Amino acid sequence: MKWALLVIAGLLETCWAVGLKYSQGFTKFVPSVLTILGMIASFYFLSLALKNLPLGTAYAIWTGIGTVGTVILGIILFKEPADLIRLVFIGFIVIGIIGLKFVSAH
Predict the structure, then answer these.
(1) Per-residue pLDDT tens digits of the chain, which is 106 residues long
(2) Separation of alpha carbons 96 and 62, rounded Å
(3) Model's pTM, two decimal places?
(4) Cα gap 99→105, rounded to integer Å
(5) Where are the domains of the chain?
(6) Any idea of the CA torsion for 5, 2, 70, 92, to the nearest 10 degrees?
(7) How many helices (H) and strands (E) does the chain have?
(8) Which of 16, 20, 1, 8 is nearest to 61 (CA)?
(9) Could you give the CA distance from residue 63 to residue 70 in angstroms, rounded to a whole number?
(10) What's the first-to-final CA gap in the chain, in angstroms?
């Protein structure tokens, strides 16, 4: 359950990061409200996961999921570059997330 909570927190981090783009510096009301709600929910699920996971591991995985998700959505939604070298380095982040999960499987 702790890992599921952490994944949810990471996915919500992706949502609020993308929401920041849509809020246009918190000048758009609905995207701003949704972004803030996403932040609160993401931090809440992270706090639940932290009850049973090491801080460094949980935080690294949370930000890693958020980073990878944000890059993917940036490519899809905002036509950001998807060149090979960028994808390779995002792959390194994914490998790091998986590696941290395996060495922290308690």
Answers:
(1) 999 999 999 999 999 999 999 999 999 999 999 999 999 999 999 999 999 999 999 999 999 999 999 999 999 999 999 999 999 999 999 999 999 999 986 5
(2) 12
(3) 0.91
(4) 10
(5) 2-103
(6) -170
(7) 4, 0
(8) 8
(9) 10
(10) 12
CB 14 within 8 Å of CB 65: yes
Question: Token pair for residue 50?
Answer: 């932290």
The residue type at 48: L
- Residue 21, phi then psi, degrees to nearest 5: -65, -45
Task: Specify whether the CB–CB gap between 52 and 30 falls below 8 A.
Answer: no
Q: Please name the residue that has the structure tokens 């809020």.
A: 23
Beta-carbon contacts of residue 81 (< 8 Å; ≥ 6 apart): 75
